[in-house]
Structures are given as C-alpha cells and as structure tokens.
Amino acid sequence: MKIRLDELSHKKLFYPIIFLIFFGISFLPPITQKPYSPENTQQVIIELLMVALKPYESFGILFHIATVMLVGWIMVDSTASGRLLFTFMGVNFIIIALVQSFGTTEMYGEVIHTGGLVAFTLIGILWIWAAVKGDAEPLAINIQWHHMIFLPFALLSFWSPYQVKANAVLPDFNPALLLTSPDYGLTFCFTTPVFLYLLFILFPKVNIFIYRITAFNGLLYALFNIAHWFNPDTRWMGVLHLPLLVLSIAALIQSGNRNVSS
C-alpha cells in the first residue's frame, strides 16, 4: 500500500485532484436549524465558533500538557517512533471535528459545520492510518537555523493570546494562557500550526502525503479567515491566523520536495 501510494503521489495530477476534493469539501454548506441566505455562510460559521467551544474550555490545559510531554519525549528519546505522535495528531483532529463543528447559536439555532466536520475527520483518520500502517522508524529532530524562523508562529498558536470583549477580539498576553487557552487543541486554526511545525522539523520522517493534505487544508482555512483583517473588531484574530498561513505555505513548499520519498 505504501509503495502504491508513493507511485501515485508522483503522478502529475495526483495532488491537484486530492486538493480539489478537499477544496470542494471546504465549501459544503453548514446545516442549520433556521434557514439562512448563502451569502451569510461565513457569518453562520462565525456564530457557531463563538459558542461551540464553551462547554469544553476547561479541557484546553490537557492538550497543552500532552503536547509538551510528547515533544519532550521526542527530543530526549532517540528511539521515539512516529506512531504515538501521528496517533495523537489523528485523535486530536477528530476531537476538533466533533467539538468545533456542532453548536447551538442564537441566530441560526443548531448548526453543523459540514465542511469542517468532514475535512478534519478525514485528516484525523489519515494520521491514525499513518500510525497504524507506518513503520516504526525512529523520528529524528534536525533543527536548523531556518526552522527557528517559524518557531514564534508555532508558539503564538500554542499560546492563543486573546480575549473577547463586547464582540471585539483583543490581545491578552496572560502567561497562563500558555497552558489554559481552550483554542489550542480544540480548534483547527490554532492547533494545526503547532502540528505543522513539529512535522516541519521532523521532515522527512513523516508521512509526506498526509503532511501535504494537512498543510493544504491549513492554507485553505487561513485564506478563509483573511476577512478578519478588514474588520477592526476582529483584526487581532486575523493576526492570530498568520501562523496557520505561514506554516501551511512553508510545509507545502517543503513537502513538495520530489527528492524525498514518502
């Protein structure tokens, strides 16, 4: 299966077709209890994201601690296998799909973010598949100077330093958020940059096929959130999506190296 996938991935139209499929998935319309006009789709999703995390905010600390422990293990154990990392990422993406895609909003009633639910679940399943079917070759962290350029972006997502006051997104550099922010671990846009950075410094000891899919979806959702920059009340949220944009582009460029086999 791995050899077959490697052969397919080198076909000229393979990645364009895969990316087109996920592009189409991202445009699946939300399902709402109350009807909405198609031009308000983005507003429906924003309304959902404002309420979806509230029941789970206290779990944010668990994802922060688990990530720190996992990274520490990879750094100190030269025999560390990618299976645990890939399983962790896969399960986390599925949790994100279930947490971030359902909620009850005041304006639209019960909402299901169909595109996110399908895309994030598929990415999660693919990473779990990589863990189960992949080999046990040890990971190798080879930090180079250019890797450090992207570290602040990963840390910014891990921190998620913001608060919402009167419907405005404001900076909040409370150090406690480094461990308690509910956005890391429970939202795709704040969790993916950290995972991409880990894969970035572990490259090529990763599943390059799924790495590219994850980065492509990260780029899609970063571009979807560009609208935050044009609203003074949410501009800081636009800044906080820069890590997703930058690391997704960097990962796509790195993973596109045809001289490295997947």
Q: In terms of topology, how is this protein built?
A:
Blueprint: H1 2-9, H2 14-26, E1 31-32, H3 41-52, H4 60-76, H5 82-100, E2 102-105, E3 109-112, H6 114-133, H7 145-159, E4 162-165, E5 168-171, H8 177-180, H9 188-202, H10 208-224, H11 235-240, H12 242-255
Antiparallel strand pairs: 1-3, 2-3, 4-5
Helix pairs in contact: 2-10, 5-6, 6-10, 7-9, 7-12, 9-10, 9-12, 10-12
What does this 3D model show about the protein?
By secondary structure, this protein is mainly alpha-helical. The chain has one domain (2-255). The protein contains 12 helices and 5 strands. The protein has a 3-stranded antiparallel sheet with strand order 1-3-2. A two-stranded antiparallel ribbon has the order 4-5. Strand 4 and strand 5 (168-171) form a beta hairpin. The mean pLDDT is 91.
Q: Give, in order, the helices and strands.
A: HHEHHHEEHHEEHHHHH
C-alpha termini separation: 12 Å
The proportion of residues forming helix, as a percent range, comes to 55-70%
Largest sheet: 3 strands, antiparallel
Q: What's the number of helices?
A: 12
Tally of discrete structural domains: 1
The dominant shape is globular
| Strand line-up of the largest beta sheet | 1-3-2
Structural class: mainly alpha
Strand content: 5-15%
Q: Cα-atom Rg, whole angstroms? A: 18 Å
**What average pLDDT do the residues reach?**
91
Number of strands: 5
Low-confidence stretches: none
